[in-house]
Amino acid sequence: MDDISMQSRLLGEPHDVRRALQLLGELLTDTAMITESPESFVWRALGAHPTTLACETITTTAWGGISLSAVLNDLIMKHDPRLGPAVSDEAPTWTQFDIDGETLSLPSAASAHFPAGTVSSAPLVVQIEREDYGAFAWDVRVFSDPAHRAEARTLLDDLNRTAVEEKNFYRGRMVGVDLAMGLQWKILEPPRLQRQDLIIKPDVWAELDLNLAALTGRADVMRERGFSTRRGVLIAGPPGVGKSAVARVIAGELVGRFTVIVVDARAGANALRDVYRETERFGPALIILEDIDLYLGDRRQGDRGSALADFLSVMDGAEEYEEVLTIASTNDPSALDAAATRSARFDSIITLGYPDQADRAKILTRYLAGLETLVDVDAIAAMLPDNVSGADLREIVRRALLAYGEDLTTDRIRTVVKDGRWQPEPLQGSYL
């Protein structure tokens, strides 16, 4: 029976069984079966067992690994090295990744032997391996003769630098972060909302601009004077008053110069520290944490101690993150632990209240713009209670358009307001 036939008969057996039988066969027949392991590949390439070689290694996160894999793929395409396995005796593996609508096929488990004179003056073997579980971290290893360890380190540093600076698919983009078997990153469309689109008091923008200066126009001054370029802003206020809209405006202004990271509640509750660590690869960053009361809570109420600990660590702890602006929002500041709202964590706390009568009229005018109709917005604004939000006003106009089309009048909008269905009431009844 030849080697190929023997291997085909063993394919259904576990790897350990296959390897034991293969070694037994080699001992009995004094022959070697056609198989390759990561260790034997390195041995053949560099002429020594891996345990006698030097190995420089780096472990990176899921999306940092994709960038590293893309850099290695470019080297493979350029130099056409001999390839081998990186996991047991499996064939070199390429995996498809969807990046902003483009599908990239990148090495996820492979070894590549680069002869001297290709990527370095010394012969080197580069291995890349992606975890298929947990956080989907990546390991990249460079093997060399101990005398050429410096060359291995240089290549690994070059791979990492290129991944961060030139092959970083997310730097300067707006990305959403979710948590599902590790951090999941998705490129988002930058918001088109601008300041003039919102009816917001000027002092709100002035306070935000002051905090932005620490990362933009005043960054050099802050560094020279020994101050941090990390800033945190908490925007508080009832639902519908524009907290998210304000954050989107700032995001639209900064994206490109900054990487904008929108963190959802699951990632915020369970992996906030990992998100902030990624900012080291993304350069200046804006991190948006919406509705943090959903996952931070108050220790006095027995709420979410681990999430709070991570939050305190990244905002004012042992781990320092420069050139990071955090904009968080909450509907209920009283629900937050007192430690989360100290000035050392948030440099500014901005409160957005309900619009006053004059601003209600301005918001109604904005939503009615473009309609060939005459509506007395001042009269409508005057009849509304003080706890009406901008979102409520939008719903009033929306319901009026659904009921009457574009033929709106003051009386018709007044009818919608009196109806009261634009302001949902809390659900009543029992939960099953």
UniProtKB/TrEMBL annotation:
<dbReference type="InterPro" id="IPR003959">
    <property type="entry name" value="ATPase_AAA_core"/>
</dbReference>
<dbReference type="InterPro" id="IPR027417">
    <property type="entry name" value="P-loop_NTPase"/>
</dbReference>
<dbReference type="GO" id="GO:0004176">
    <property type="term" value="F:ATP-dependent peptidase activity"/>
</dbReference>
<dbReference type="GO" id="GO:0006508">
    <property type="term" value="P:proteolysis"/>
</dbReference>
<protein>
    <recommendedName>
        <fullName>AAA+ ATPase domain-containing protein</fullName>
    </recommendedName>
</protein>
<dbReference type="GO" id="GO:0005524">
    <property type="term" value="F:ATP binding"/>
</dbReference>
<dbReference type="GO" id="GO:0016887">
    <property type="term" value="F:ATP hydrolysis activity"/>
</dbReference>
<dbReference type="InterPro" id="IPR003593">
    <property type="entry name" value="AAA+_ATPase"/>
</dbReference>
<feature type="domain" description="AAA+ ATPase">
    <location>
        <begin position="229"/>
        <end position="356"/>
    </location>
</feature>
<dbReference type="Pfam" id="PF00004">
    <property type="entry name" value="AAA"/>
</dbReference>
